[in-house]
Amino acid sequence: MGSSSSSSAHLAWHLCLALAFLRLRGLAGGSGVPDADECTEGTDDCHIDAICQNTPKSYKCICKPGYKGEGKQCEDIDECENDFYNGGCVHECINIPGNYRCTCYDGFMLAHDGHNCLDVDECLDNNGGCQQICVNTMGSYECQCKEGFFLSDNQHTCIHRSNETCAVNNGGCDRTCKDTATGVRCSCPVGFTLQPDGKTCKDIDECLVNNGGCDHFCRNTVGSFECSCQKGYKLLTDERTCQDIDECSFERTCDHTCINYPGSFECLCHKGYTLYGMTHCGDIDECSISNGSCDYGCLNTMGTYECVCPPGKKLHWNKKDCIETVKCLPNAKPAPKAQLVCSKSGGMESCFLSCPSNTLFVPDSENSYSVSCGVPIQQGKLQQKRNSTLPSCADILAPPIKQKARFKIKDAKCHLRPRSKEKIKDIGKQQAVIGGQFPCTDNCPVAFVNLKCDSSKKKRRGRKSPSKEVSHITAEFEMEMKSEEVSDTCNVDCLRKRMEQKLQTAIKTLRKSINKQQFYIQFSGTEYEVAQKAAKAIPEGHEPCSTGQVQQDGKCVTCSTGTYYSGEHNQCVPCSPGTYQDTEGQLSCEPCPSNDGQGIAGARNVSECGGQCSPGHFSSDGFKPCRLCPLGTYQSEPGRTLCFPCGGGLGTKHEGAVSFHDCETKVHCSPGHYYNSTTHRCIRCPVATYQPEFGQNYCITCPGNTSTDFDGSTNVTHCKNQQCGGELGDYTGYIESPNYPGDYPASVECIWNISPPPKRRILIVVPEIFLPIEDECGDVLVMRKSASPTSITTYETCQTYERPIAFTSRSRKLWIQFKSNEGNSGKGFQVPYVTYDEDYQQLIEDIVRDGRLYASENHQEILKVFDAGEYFGIMQVEEAEEETEGDEEIQEEWKKKLNPSNELCYKVIVTNENGLQEANPDSIFLIDHAWTYRVRHAHQQLLAVPGLLHRMANLMGIEFHGEAPDERAVEQVLEEMWKYNQTYQLSSGTAEDKVSVWYIMDEFGSRIQHSDEPTFATAPLFYMPQQIAYTVLWPLRDLENGEEVTRDFAYGETDRLLRRCRLLPWLSSDTLDINCFPTEPSDDHYKAIFSENKEKLPVPIKPPVYGKDKIFKVYTDLQQVLQNLNHPHFEFTESEQEADILYNFSHFKDYRKLSEERPHVMLNQFPCENLLTVKDCLASISRRVGGSEGPKWLPRTFNLHTELPQFISFFQQCERRGEDNHWICKPWNLARSLDTHITKSLNNIIRQRESIPKVVSKYIENPVLFHLEDVGLVKFDIRYVVLLRSVKPLKLYAYDVFWLRFSNRSFSLDDLDDYEKHFTVMNYDPAVSLKQIHYNEFIPLFEKQYPDYSWKSIQEDIFKAFMELFQAACSKPAPLGICDYPSSRAIYAIDLMLKWETSSDGKPYMQPQILEVNFNPDCDRACKYHPTFFNDVFNTLFRDETTGCHVTLIA
């Protein structure tokens, strides 16, 4: 196709073509020979998009511009196809037949050159429709308003700010609008930041800072962001970290061996197999590769192959060549024969079998093995697998003598063990008594012995009798008859009978010796017992290795090839030169065929024996001396007796050719072809074969049952499994394209039928599918009710989708067809399915909307959840209100019902016809989790995660029909979810990792109701290998079919009042009768805390006294001290023992030992100071001030563990009085606002008790605010550092500098999950901006904002609160208060806020509110801005010197 701007070029081309026609016709006419003009006559066969050009006696076809082809076939050129060039278009390129055209995006117009795009200035046309100001932008425009106006919703008209109110146009705010005395105030939700115009919310791109904390990929979303991982990794529950997926842990990943790599894996095949389809292993047909290099026939078997010989010939030791059966080596020494030697000594028969060569030991199992010695005379398949030397030239008379016998040994196991030296000594002594000679010896040279020993259990009579070990031995013997043994007095028949009698006599003696366990087999000079009596119990881990194995690094390892097992030395010994061993775990080595004693030690096969003919050579026995392969032949292997002809009369360039490549072929064949020596042509490899190399004369058969799509294949990857389809009907299963995950074959059709059990329907997950994208559907996967094209279709696709999808079948049964055309191929698909009870149809439809089901690494696990359908069912019940008038007891019971209305509720019942048994190990079930989250992220996840809000609303019975997130529905879910929440904590990781995780069980688990007498119990289970959490469900007693599944929502709680309180989210009740003013706990409470902390109180000591000039040695592990303490009266020491001052970061415990051994040593801690620094203790000791209501300087606080009833009573009384009920839940002993939440939900607070220990404090709903430029009025807190010099007398100092922390958003009592609005700790999140003001800058700004309040008077109130707090903490002896230890000193940080209160005369005043007291605080900012900080601290605390120090005495 040509450009739309090249019409002049088209005209010139046609003109030139016309002139060419005239010239050609003139030439033809000049010749005098009339030329037929096929183009004019229409007899040409040019394509419709080609031009016919007449030539002398013929014509030419030329494709038109914009088309390509040879003229008889023309196809359109798609100029737009090249993404880089895009037809030269700046924006969009649209292809049309024979041409193309450029178009522009909205807001642009096409330039005169037909390719470039110019911006349209919309403001030139009627001011863009803007009422006031129109600003043109690239590709668009925007309306703006003049000062004092703001833009309305229609983005064109302007509204005067004097009329601004949230009721009109949302006050011009993008998101949240609030009416205030000074006008509207706009705010933004989490994930957005308010722009300088004070109206617009701009999405924060979290990915710009530290990649959003994501390990791999970060994708910014509106109001949030998402982390994702590279292929081969999965996202962990922290939604940041990527962990390698161990594909090898999954079933069916590889046929044979799987090796996992970070982000990937590799499949390997056993020897004799090759890889195809990426993960599958198929048998290699070695016979297709030059006939396996066999001399005659080749027989392929699974994993290996065998060469076979014609009648009258046998296999050479090299297992490839065939030699004449009678052929022998005249000069060769005969291989030593096996000998069965039996003797009788002192009435005791004993036999031993000597196996000098051709031995094979096969340990079949733990208690059975087989041994063979020698070579069978009539060789069969067994001999072809054995290594045997060539026979000597003695004539053998056939057939051989064969005998088979069975023996039994009682109370013994078949273990081939070396004979003990003690037994050999005893036998030697007996022989010495009778003269050292055997009085009677049966010596039978046998050609071949095959012996099998097998142990089995035999039950004695009587039910309680123990099992008895019985070993069975089966022995086969072959003896050869040689011609030289025949004489005139004894012919062949006589000799046969004589030898048969001799063998029978030997077998009789053998039977007696076996019965008396006096039968041994000799290998390499070591005698072995065939079976032994059961040994005494052997400790676990000390069991001996099997014969043929030795211990290495605590493991049993089989002796490798090239070695043999020596029972005498219990080690693997290398084969001596002149011998070899090509099998693992053998008891001797075989003599090399050359028999010259040469070769290397430890030879692993015959080829390492030495002396063999090298490639390109041969000899009669395969050993030197050797001859070169003659011209026209080649040999690629060593030790051969022949050379292979090139065939077809082909010669070689020289003698001694080593491969077919040396044959002088007529042509050199490329891969995918083989050379035919008859026709001397290259032939394409047939279908189901391939050839990857140049110049070969064979093609390799595809492995296993695979085939190729076409002939001429060049690689094993072209071999594809063709099998697919079938009938499926189980509860779960899968369908996959043939050859998956390798490319599927062309022209294949697969049909599956899924017929689920009765009353079950089908759920399908398609993790990914890869089909080539074409203009027309070439390869297609379709799922419908039946084979009929008009039946109900569930799913159909002919494209690639890498994002998972899930769906339910629209019919009870599914007919599935996959069809590929002749030209395409792709990876295809593997699609799992599961069936479910049809009663859950609506439930499953809701679950399908949950995006979590689509995570490709999770879908298989999640599908397993539905397998419980054969054990349980969910019943929908309607509890109608009964007539209860006049019956107070019934009315009271009705109030306690979980669902006291006409609303629908659910019950889970046992549906298994046999019920469930508590003791049955199979009666354990996994419940999946529908939503797992941390409280801080709950609101944002409901808005951002697709399908989550819809599923939660459905699960909780909240009406929500829309697709877009609805703030009202979100708030309802956040309130209702505390009836469904469960929790767990991770025991390892950072402090952030240990924050409580909450989860909601799936629809099945969430339908299980409460009962005080539960039938089941549940517990969370975190499956570490896949980082997935489940809930385990198990029965507490046997249940029958139809019984309800219930659990105790307050499991383990026995106190009746606490139980009533904990069940309040489900069973409404009031606690107004309970005293809501908790008193200080008893002494036993403090003593229990002291015992848990494992502190040891010091013994009484005198205060240490030091001189003014004393230089103190300081031992510390705090870097801030090491880097900033530089006063001359202090020096550091690395020895804790020589220190005068211990300044430790961690808590000190053993004060008793320190006070007894080193009372003069001072330290930076007080015993029992946790009464200040742990939040529940801080609240307890503070009640010593201010009566029953506590001090005014501490927010009202309850310990959820010990004071839950009092808190609920107080909450309900506030609710009844209409007072503010915002509360903040905090862990007892976590800093940095971790796991801290603000709420006004009573259910939320009650359930928080189930996580880590927490207190709940009244949230300061009316804090004193500070105005920050560009933000507005924000919350702030103040940190003071106080120095405790002594307890008695109380000596307390405050550092003169204090520190401030600010919220990042203006304060209002809403958006309680907006961390930057309600919290001030911002210095631990790198993605959050930190606003800092120095104290001496803050004071004048504060007094300017609040001119009626001087900071001096406020600080006096703060110091008074500090004094009262420490007086309370020190008012009682340890462990009820801080211990008066004279050598202790301490530094604490006290965080506080200011709160508006009203005095009795109605005037507002600022009341300090102590939030927490911190031990060993972070002093980084103090050291940064005040370098003398630690000098001041150490002088004040340890030298009692405050002159020049920036401290103020409080008490």
UniProtKB/TrEMBL annotation:
Domain EGF-like residue range list: 35-75, 119-155, 203-243, 244-282
Gene3D superfamilies: ATP-grasp fold, B domain (3.30.470.20), Laminin (2.10.25.10), Spermadhesin, CUB domain (2.60.120.290), Tumor Necrosis Factor Receptor, subunit A, domain 2 (2.10.50.10)
Bridged cysteine pairs (disulfide): C248-C258
Pfam families (alphabetical): cEGF, CUB, EGF_3, EGF_CA, Ephrin_rec_like, FXa_inhibition, SET_TTL, TTL
Signal peptide from the UniProt entry: 1-28
GO MF annotation: an example: calcium ion binding
Sequence ranges assigned to domain CUB in this UniProt record: 724-836
Keyword annotations from UniProtKB, A to Z: Calcium, Developmental protein, Disulfide bond, EGF-like domain, Glycoprotein, Repeat, Secreted, Signal
Recorded superkingdom: Eukaryota
One annotated Gene Ontology cellular component of this protein: extracellular region
Localization in the cell: Secreted
Principal location: secreted
This protein's name: Signal peptide, CUB and EGF-like domain-containing protein 2
Organism: Anolis carolinensis (Green anole)
